Description:
Layout: E1 12-21, E2 24-33, E3 39-44, H1 52-62, E4 66-71, H2 85-91, H3 97-115, E5 120-125, H4 127-136, E6 143-147, H5 166-169, E7 176-181, H6 189-198, E8 206-210, H7 228-242
Parallel strand pairs: 3-4, 3-5, 5-6, 6-7, 7-8
Antiparallel strand pairs: 1-2, 2-4
Amino acid sequence: MAALKQGNIYDVTVEPRKLAVDGVEVAAVHARPDGMPSAGIVLHPDIGGLRPLFEEMARTLATHGFAVCCFEPFAALGGLSGAPFEQRVDAVKDLDDRVQLEIFDAAANLLVVEDDVTRVSALGFCMGGHYVFKAASTDRFDTAVSFYGMLHLPEGWSGPGHRIDPLTVAPEMVPTLAIFGSNDSFIPNADVAALGAAWNDRKDCELIVIEGAEHGFVHDPERPAHRADAAEALWDRALTWML
């Protein structure tokens, strides 16, 4: 996690958890700093799901004073543990907004009950960023940060359970920070412009576009698309947004 630097808190507890949603056990990770957390974060992974990359991200976020709950987004479909990328892409169309938002809610409840936080943000990447836009349109979160979240799912990803359109609900979102790259093949620049237009009168929402950046340029330093300079600055902006 080269781009997300260690915070000033060194005593952090990270433990596996299970969230119960509609009779489904959702695998999750709960990370919290020693002492009283400053705020909570529900962390939605990219399409690769809950894995060491995001477990480490949760731990590092906790060193900045946050209590964090990160969950497996395909839990309702059996988790797809170890499934190849192509199988996960094919499964996105079978996800249901109602269930996914209930998982967000359960993760937020865990942070409120166990960590006594009064402020909870939603944070997500790629497909997770897409769902963060949806979660931001509910009244469950105080702020949201979406890194290159799709504003319309690519062809073949969408199914009948995808009822919430991020651009349609954009005016209803809580204060949201949306970050994109101008060369993202998954997110047309026209969609980004449409989001900016929807937020034209929203001084509490912010849209950042990094010129020349491709999809996934922040959260995984191992990706060829990673932009270390931009990632470090954007992480600082995101942390401030969620405090």
